[in-house]
Every structure is written in C-alpha cells, then in structure tokens.
Specification:
By secondary structure, the protein is mainly α. It is about 50% helix and about 0% strand. It has a single domain, classed as Non-ribosomal Peptide Synthetase Peptidyl Carrier Protein, Chain A.
Length: about 90
C-alpha cells in the first residue's frame, strides 16, 4: 500500500491516508488527554474508553458521511481506523 489514494469526502478536499490519520488524531486528542499519537498508536493507549470511542465513531461518520458497522470495531490502532475510514469513503463513492 505504498500508493497514496485520493478520495474526496463531503468537504471537497481529497482524502489521503495521511490526511485521514491526521484528522483522526485530532479528533482523538479532542476526546482524551492523549499527547503523542501516531498511526501505530493503540486506541486504548490514547485513553479511549467505550463512551469516547462511540463519540469518536459518531464524529467520524458525520465528518466523512460514512457508516461504521459493528464488525468494524476490531480496529486496534489509529492507522487501522484511518484505513477503515478511507475504505468506507471509497465504497461510498
């Protein structure tokens, strides 16, 4: 997956894996006290309890006009979540 995929979310700017990852990091920081997050950071290490994860999911769904299913909850890292979001954006297009 060395190729950068560009998909346009509702905001009009192309979404790349790096851009989606950065945005998710920002959303997580807004929901928790996590300081240094990267794509390989575990969501649990970011202090995300189930209520915060649910809030994060709702914000991601609204931001990208996508739906995340119950099967999608097996993401462990910020990068896993970013890849899932990018896949859902592509599926919607």
């Amino acid at each position: 997956m060395g190729r950068t995929a560009e998909v346009t979310p509702p905001g009009g700017q192309p979404a790349t894996l790096a851009a989606v990852t950065d945005e998710i990091v920002g959303l997580i920081k807004a929901e928790s006290d996590a300081a240094d997050l990267r794509a390989d950071s575990a969501l649990q290490d970011a202090g995300m309890d189930s209520a915060r994860v649910l809030s994060l999911v709702f914000r991601i769904e609204a931001r990208y006009d996508i739906e995340l299913d119950a099967e999608d909850v097996d993401v462990r890292t910020v990068g896993d979540l970013a890849r899932l979001v990018l896949r859902r954006i592509r599926e919607r297009s």
